[in-house]
Amino acid sequence: MAKLFASLLIGAVFGLGIAxxxxxxxxxxxxxxxxAGAWDPSxxxxxxxxxxxxxxxYRLVFGRRQRxxxxxxxxxxxxxxxxxxxxxxxxxxxxxxxxAGFCPGGAIPALGFGGVTVIVFTGAMMIGIVxxxxxxxLRRKTGKPF
Length: 146
Prior knowledge:
Blueprint: H1 2-21, H2 26-33, H3 42-64, H4 84-100, H5 104-110, H6 116-142
């Protein structure tokens, strides 16, 4: 129960931060990419603040704890390879973010505001996740890379 409550609290703080910063508004995000027009540099400050907070959090947590509070171990990525899958996924993420103005971190809190655009984006994101997992399962089963 404590793990569930902590997850709910962390998600609420994240969603509140996304909403307050305006990153749930796709027009604000798209204006960041419009360097020749109505450029809005505020996304740099949001990302910078997130980077500093994360760096301090990692330093604090890993400096003091051998394991997380609500789990047996830390679940950190082990694959450090920069391969085709990583580059293709990153490019897909960036292109989608640039076209729609939403990323998963901004879209989930934006669902609370409603609107067709965010619902369509979130549905497409879910379909993409299922498709990617299916292709990954097929790739693992056949042993052939895509």
